[in-house]
Amino acid sequence: MKRLWFLIPLAAFFALAVVLAVGLKRDPREVPSPLIDKPAPKFALARLDDATKTVRLDDLRGKAFILNVWASWCVACREEHPLLLEFARKRMVPIYGLNYKDTRPEAAGWLASFGNPYDASFFDEDGRVGLDFGVYGVPETFVIDGNGVIRLKHIGPLTPEVLADKIEPLLKKLDA
Amino acid sequence: MPRQAVVALLVAVALTFGFAIAPGVAAKEAAPEAADPALEARMVRIASELRCLVCQNQTIADSNASLAVDLRREARALLKQGKSDEEVVAYMTARYGDFVLYRPPLKSTTMLLWFGPALMLLGGGAVLVAVLRRRSRMNADQFERDDDEAIDPDIADAAAPRALGRAE
């Protein structure tokens, strides 16, 4: 047994190498949100298409929904947009947009030219509601359950894998 | 040829570091909004302890990213409402997590982060002491002889050509 002691530093080295390799694979830009499994922050925002209509978080309760943070100035939003349009056609859950730090004409023009997957978009002009949701990299996507609890947050553009492997199974679970 | 290679290498190194440093020098410090200098100083002190999430190696006080500007605005607003420094920091961590703190809090999950380096140092020191102690108890004939103590002419002659061969 004592003969094998010289292997200890080697084993320690490999353990450290594995830890560091895993660290390298992880994306440092994806910061885990402290809001997961917490009630979504309350908000009251005007609709993007109708400034006179205010929507509150409580109005959306009762059924799980997706809240997608987007902006017309956001290049990566264009990337995920076709996916979102396709997902909206499945009509699994309502999709709401949080139009983050944008202007009404530009946002409306963007939806007109790229298509509108949202049941409604809320106009967060100064980004305060975005701040409450801990938004830091648009696009971001939240799954909020019927009780208004945030169940999932995806930072950056959606991918087919994220939709198929994470969001859809979660929505099915929430439905059941 | 080797001299040219050395010059080329030096130029490459200079260019690399020159470009790497240049953006840091060129980046403008975020301009403070001097409405209430005392409050502004407090805000900057808090913001310089917080990591900007868009530009992760800058503090919120340093950064001109729009998120950092917004967070400074919020911090300023909270301070104006009479909130304490701790409350402002709590506001940030409630939204962005402990990740924004440049000084992570001492919790069960951060024990390794805080004490890991000291543990490694102590562990290494302990191993070193153990090895040195064991060696000091060993007899001299248990060690290999150093090369410069080699008196066996066969060994010295055998080693010499090999050293020359490598220089060719």
- Helix share bin of chain B: 55-70%
Portion in helices of chain A? 25-40%
Assign the CATH topology of the largest domain in chain B. Helicase, Ruva Protein, domain 3
Q: Mind summarizing the main beta sheet of chain B? A: none
Q: Which architecture of chain A does the CATH hierarchy give at level 2?
A: 3-Layer(aba) Sandwich
- What string, H for helix and E for strand, traces the elements of chain B in order? HHHHHH
Overall mean pLDDT of chain A stands at 91
Q: Which two chains have the most extensive interface, and how many residues on each? A: A-B, 17 and 15 residues
Fold and architecture overview:
The complex is a heterodimer of chains A (176) and B (168). Chain A has one domain: Glutaredoxin (3-Layer(aba) Sandwich). Helix content of chain A is 38%, strand content 19%. Chain A is built from five helices and seven strands; from the N terminus they run αβββαβαβαββα. Chain A has helices at residues 7-25, 75-90, 104-114, 128-132, 160-175, and strands spanning 44-46, 54-56, 65-70, 95-100, 120-124, 140-144, 150-155. The longest helix of chain A is centred in the N-terminal third of the chain and has 19 residues, at 7-25. Chain A is elongated and about 80 Å long. Chain B has 168 residues and is an all-alpha fold. Chain B is elongated and about 85 Å long. Residues 20-28 of chain B have low confidence and may be disordered. The chains are: A alpha/beta (176), B mainly alpha (168). Chain A binds chain B through residues 28-29, 31-35, 101, 126-128, 131-134, 136-137, and chain B through 53-54, 56, 66-67, 70-71, 74, 93-99.
